[in-house]
């Protein structure tokens, strides 16, 4: 299959570039900037994109590809498009000049197109693009032509047809560059001449065939099903391929949202007809272990370990009954595997995100059918495989569940209060038609008592915080500017209907510097 490879120089938009290319119908993958050139060529990409990045090319420590990179790639005739940092890098490595500008250019800019064939095919003379840079190209090496300019950036795009090298200072991958997809499409189709062979229908069919071949006709697979989109779609694919030889283990850890265990059970057992859906009620075990714990990382750790233990015990039990269990399926998706250079360089661990890790003594082969897919692709596949819309569109929910939405110690009473408040919030957000517009909406239990008045009685009850955020990928988030009437309705209902809460506050912090979750 034809593909475009994106070299990751640490730009926050690296995954975005790869996703855009796939949306345009061509397969794409991300590789580290210092990949061995031979290995890169062996992957036979139709074209290569050099991503943006936070560094300056003239800094000694800035990420550079292997010394012979450009010579070898030019020799192979593989077209290269540099974006922002990548745009500087091509020129720097080939003997041109990059300079730091006194004032950084950031935001919407008008681009004047000088060469309208090739990269800028089907565009007008002037187009709006999104800029974000401090450096710029001031002198091109021989053989390069200027393709576009802006008022403050005379070399905003360039090309060298003989060497098949191109660069754009702006970001075609972001939505703020309205014709960005056309520019990327031009690179893919007219310059890299890559075919549009990436179709999800074909992927589903091939994936089912691959799974059947790998598992064979009598071996069995186990899967930890959380009810989230990734594990649910993994389950559906496997179920299509091997039917009741798939064993799903669903652990109710007592930290789930209102009615969630029942809904997941109903969807998989009744609606989707999963024969081997194993429901484990481990609420008591989890709550016992969490007793008196306050530290968020401690809570995460205990929950992670307990989950593995419960899962492992169930697997051992199942293995006795079904000695043919040979595989462990996981809902790993592409961004889980490919850390961008930017994130892998930063050693600071903000929060430890718990996901299932395979216990060392379990001799099962891991199978990850979604490992090359992005979240939006997983959603589309889920829809095609008949996963209920409520599961597909459900807001992300952290592995440690409500434990990281209760500040301080956790007990059943606090969990029930939180569940009830959360249910009201979600009901009202859905009624107002806002649910699909926002990234996450949830309540947080704060172990802080304040005074209130209910009828003739003074109350002294807990505080509930409401967190509603808009985001694209959870890396950054803004609090949603919900309408006052809606907020009033939510707060009135929570205070009236949830015993134990007499005050509601709205969180107006953005990420960064705050995080989405409280813990
Ligand atoms: P933060 O709070 O770090 O959250 O801004 C970013 C996104 O990650 C989710 N989150 C978690 N998911 N295990 C998970 O599986 C965790 O420990 C965890 N902590 C946060 C959070 O809900 C948000 O979508």
Overview of the structural elements:
The protein has 519 residues and is of the alpha/beta class. The chain contains 16 helices and 18 strands. The chain has helices at residues 14-23, 37-42, 69-76, 85-93, 180-191, 200-215, 229-242, 260-271, 283-290, 296-321, 334-337, 341-345, 375-384, 389-392, 412-431, 484-497; strands at 3-8, 27-32, 47-50, 80-83, 97-113, 126-139, 145-149, 157-160, 165-168, 220-224, 246-252, 277-281, 325-329, 365-367, 440-454, 457-470, 478-479, 501-506. A 9-stranded mixed β-sheet has the order 2-1-3-4-9-8-7-5-6, with helices on both faces. A 5-stranded parallel β-sheet has the order 12-11-10-13-14, with helices on both faces. A hairpin with a 2-residue loop joins β15 (440-454) and β16. α9 (283-290) packs antiparallel against α10 (296-321). The longest helix has 26 residues, at 296-321. The radius of gyration is 26 Å and the shape is globular. The two termini are 44 Å apart. It binds xanthosine-5'-monophosphate. The site of xanthosine-5'-monophosphate has 14 residues, from loops.
């Amino acid at each position: 299959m034809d593909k475009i490879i994106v070299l990751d120089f640490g730009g926050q938009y690296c995954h975005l570039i790869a996703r855009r290319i796939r949306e345009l119908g061509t397969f794409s993958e991300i590789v580290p900037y210092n990949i061995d050139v031979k290995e890169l060529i062996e992957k036979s990409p139709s074209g290569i994109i050099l991503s943006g990045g936070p560094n300056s090319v003239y800094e000694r420590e800035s990420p550079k590809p292997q010394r012979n990179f450009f010579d070898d790639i030019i020799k192979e005739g593989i077209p290269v498009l540099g974006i922002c940092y990548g745009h500087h890098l091509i020129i720097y490595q080939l003997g041109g000049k990059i300079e730091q500008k006194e004032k950084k250019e950031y935001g919407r800019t008008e681009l004047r197109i000088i060469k309208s064939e090739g990269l800028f095919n089907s565009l007008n003379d002037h187009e709006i693009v999104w800029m974000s840079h401090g450096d710029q190209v001031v002198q091109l090496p021989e053989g390069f032509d200027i393709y576009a300019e802006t008022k403050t950036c005379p070399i905003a795009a360039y090309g060298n047809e003989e060497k098949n090298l191109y660069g754009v200072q702006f970001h075609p991958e972001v939505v703020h560059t309205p014709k960005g997809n056309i520019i990327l499409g031009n690179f893919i189709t007219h310059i890299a001449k890559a075919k549009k062979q990436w179709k999800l229908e074909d992927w589903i069919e091939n994936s089912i065939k691959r799974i059947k071949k790998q598992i064979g006709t009598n071996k069995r697979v186990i899967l930890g099903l959380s009810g989230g989109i990734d594990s649910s779609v993994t389950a559906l694919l496997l179920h299509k391929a091997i039917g009741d030889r798939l064993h799903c283990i669903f652990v109710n850890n007592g930290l789930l949202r209102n009615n969630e265990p029942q809904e997941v059970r109903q969807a998989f057992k009744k609606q989707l007809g999963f024969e081997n859906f194993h429901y484990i009620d481990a609420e008591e075990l989890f709550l016992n272990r969490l007793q008196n714990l306050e530290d968020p990382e401690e809570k995460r750790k205990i929950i992670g370990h307990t989950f593995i233990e419960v899962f492992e015990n169930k697997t051992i039990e199942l293995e006795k009954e079904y000695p043919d269990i040979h595989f462990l399926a996981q809902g790993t998706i592409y961004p889980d595997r490919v850390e961008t250079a930017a994130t892998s360089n930063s050693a600071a661990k903000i929060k430890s995100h718990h996901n299932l890790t395979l216990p060392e003594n379990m001799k099962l082969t891991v199978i990850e059918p979604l490992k090359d897919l992005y979240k939006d692709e997983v959603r589309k596949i889920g829809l095609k495989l008949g996963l209920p819309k409520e599961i597909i569109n459900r807001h992300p929910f952290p592995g440690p569940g409500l434990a990281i939405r209760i500040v301080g110690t956790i007990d059943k009473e606090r969990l029930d209060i939180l569940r009830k408040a959360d249910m009201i919030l979600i009901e009202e957000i859905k009624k107002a038609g806002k649910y699909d517009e926002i990234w996450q909406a949830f309540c947080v239990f704060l172990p802080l008592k304040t005074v209130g008045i209910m009828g003739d009685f003074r109350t002294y009850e807990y505080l509930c915080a409401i967190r509603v955020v808009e985001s694209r990928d959870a890396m950054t988030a803004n609090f949603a500017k919900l309408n006052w009437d809606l907020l009033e309705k939510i707060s009135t209902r929570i205070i009236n209907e949830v015993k134990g809460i007499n005050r509601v506050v709205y969180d107006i912090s953005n990420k960064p510097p705050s995080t989405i979750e409280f813990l």
